[in-house]
Inverse folding.
């Protein structure tokens, strides 16, 4: 078959296959054009999942008649200076989006340039360009796309349901709105306004308010600010506390020079930064913005511009890990506010089920939150109903017949200094089930899991010792003999030198036993046999992953678990308060080595509402 040149219509449709994957792709291209035009108010309207109609209206600079006629031509752009593909300071720059859309749908663009009194429109219907005509536009531009993929009906088979396409469009607009808090966005899908975001100030607080409207108010309560700069690379944004996490990565938003991206380098850096503060299989909430010189990043890697390539990827990775890790070290002592709230909700649910059959009923209602976030809970108590009294009165009812107590009912509380109540974890008041420490602050009740908390403290001490050259050891008066399978003995003896760096000195004791002669001094009276057997299993499971020294922190975590205060041990008031003070001074103490929370905080106001006192 002889070689021939493709027609312009076919070329545009091939380009559309690269750029326009689904209706959300059209919305992305048109909204980016509006942002590039300096718009401060953007409205997106779709119908039929975006197949019947997509309309994007903005108040940007608009286009003169000559530019309007040229914008639908292939590779025509106003966003490249002297054809320099390494100095890209805008979103769209290829000049492919509009002609590609016009080749597979009916495209109509109406625009009025700033400073003029006339507006014009142009139509491209499945690749056929029509002449300019007068139009009615107050300011900026209005772009309408109808009958998407009508020129390529085979593409329709690969689209999902109308609901799924609407969700994809919503996600696209949300990502763009995060990157531009100074721009107001309105999204209408079908007959419903699914998103309405007012413009925010270009400040950290303004950005957090925009993020909270999109990611939920829970994120606002549990987010900490990230800011840093290194070698001309800047990072800003907000990350969620480690204990505020979810089972998928759908609430991780990354931006490079304002462009939403999905970059493996950045995702890997974030995973390394959070490290052992997250449970396995859980993902943090975050929105991070990386800015650098356009010449130091290639945004021309993928037609949809969702992937980038950094000139100095090592510097970017180092900045992300360092900035996020620094913030976590300063803030990860905090526990997620969601933990305390869910505890209160659980109490309320129990109260509802138990009191539903009597005269006093507690009703739990959920109030919607703007932006689709997680709803907070409000409690409607019997005090608001015709029946008098609330949960507190119902609990006291069985004792109403007693005129006085039969004995001294006040509990003995150790006197504490008033300033201790101002500390984050307050003063220890009791120990429950030899496992949980109950503490009091000025405005909250704190419940601490003593084993999880001490496990993190021991782990952080071991990491500090490892960083300073080695772990202090203590010799055992009588060596501990640990019987194991021959392959386990062999595996442990192979790594005896590396285990010694961790403070564990072992020797062979026949073919089926290990003699433990020294243990890390920090572990105290730990379960030596259980520790060695766990380490042997870990070495066997990960034998192919290289030297044990490359996984020192993982091994230290295992040791900390065996050397921490176990559940079931009774602590004195002094020991409990000492544990609280050390938690306040230790990085990442808000979660144990496995990423689970070490304490929950119950706000006094929530407790009072639970009992109908507010």
């Amino acid at each position: 078959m002889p070689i021939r040149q493709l027609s312009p219509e076919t070329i545009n449709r091939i380009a559309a296959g690269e750029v326009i994957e689904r209706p959300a792709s059209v919305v992305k291209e048109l909204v980016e054009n509006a942002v590039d035009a300096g718009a401060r108010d953007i409205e997106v309207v779709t119908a039929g999942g975006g197949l019947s109609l997509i309309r994007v209206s903005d108040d940007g600079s608009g286009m003169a008649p000559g530019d309007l006629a040229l914008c639908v031509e292939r590779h025509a752009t106003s966003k490249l200076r002297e054809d320099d593909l390494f100095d890209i300071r805008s979103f769209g720059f290829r000049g492919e989006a509009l002609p590609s859309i016009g080749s597979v749908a009916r495209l109509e663009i109406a625009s009025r340039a700033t400073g003029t009194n006339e507006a014009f429109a142009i139509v491209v219907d499945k690749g056929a360009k029509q002449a300019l005509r007068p139009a009615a536009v107050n300011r900026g531009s209005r772009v309408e796309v109808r009958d998407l993929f009508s020129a390529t009906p085979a593409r329709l088979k690969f689209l999902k349901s109308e609901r799924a396409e609407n969700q994809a469009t919503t996600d696209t607009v949300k990502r763009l709105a995060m990157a531009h808090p100074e721009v107001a966005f309105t999204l209408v899908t079908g007959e419903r306004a699914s998103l309405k975001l007012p413009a925010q100030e270009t400040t950290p607080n303004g950005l957090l308010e925009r993020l909270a409207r999109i990611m939920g108010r829970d994120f606002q309560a549990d987010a900490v600010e990230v800011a840093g700069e290194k070698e001309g690379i800047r990072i800003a944004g907000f990350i969620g506390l480690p204990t505020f996490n979810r089972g998928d990565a759908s609430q991780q938003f990354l931006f490079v020079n304002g462009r939403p991206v999905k970059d493996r380098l950045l995702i890997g850096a974030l995973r390394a930064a959070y490290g052992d503060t997250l449970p396995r299989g859980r993902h943090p909430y975050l929105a991070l913005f990386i800015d650098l010189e356009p010449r130091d990043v290639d945004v021309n890697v993928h037609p949809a511009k969702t992937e980038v390539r950094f000139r100095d990827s090592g510097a970017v990775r180092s900045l992300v890990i360092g900035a996020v890790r620094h913030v976590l070290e300063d803030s990860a002592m905090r526990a997620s506010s969601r933990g305390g709230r869910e505890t209160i909700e659980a109490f309320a649910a129990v109260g509802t089920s138990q009191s539903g059959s009597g005269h006093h009923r507690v009703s739990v209602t959920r109030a919607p939150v703007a932006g689709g976030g997680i709803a907070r809970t409000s409690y409607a108590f019997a005090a608001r109903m015709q029946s008098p009294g609330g949960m507190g009165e119902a609990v006291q009812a069985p004792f109403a017949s007693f005129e006085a107590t039969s004995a001294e009912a006040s509990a003995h509380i150790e006197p504490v200094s008033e300033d201790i109540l101002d500390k984050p974890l307050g003063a220890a008041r009791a120990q429950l089930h030899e496992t949980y420490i109950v503490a009091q602050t000025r405005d909250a009740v704190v419940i601490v899991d003593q084993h999880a908390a001490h496990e993190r403290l021991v782990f952080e001490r071991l990491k500090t010792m490892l960083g300073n050259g080695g772990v202090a050891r203590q010799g055992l008066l009588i060596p501990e003999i640990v019987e194991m399978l021959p392959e386990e003995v062999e595996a442990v003896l192979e790594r005896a030198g590396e285990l010694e760096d961790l403070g564990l000195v072992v020797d062979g004791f026949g073919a089926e036993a290990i003699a433990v002669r020294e243990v890390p001094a920090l572990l105290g009276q730990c379960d030596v046999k259980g520790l060695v057997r766990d380490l042997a299993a870990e070495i066997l499971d990960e034998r192919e992953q290289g030297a044990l020294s490359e996984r020192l922190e993982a091994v230290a975590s295992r040791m900390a678990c065996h050397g921490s205060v176990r559940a079931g041990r009774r602590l004195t008031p002094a020991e409990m308060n000492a544990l609280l003070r050390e938690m306040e001074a230790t990085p990442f103490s808000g979660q144990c080595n496995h990423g689970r929370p070490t304490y929950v905080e119950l706000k006094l106001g929530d407790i009072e509402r639970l009992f109908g006192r507010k």
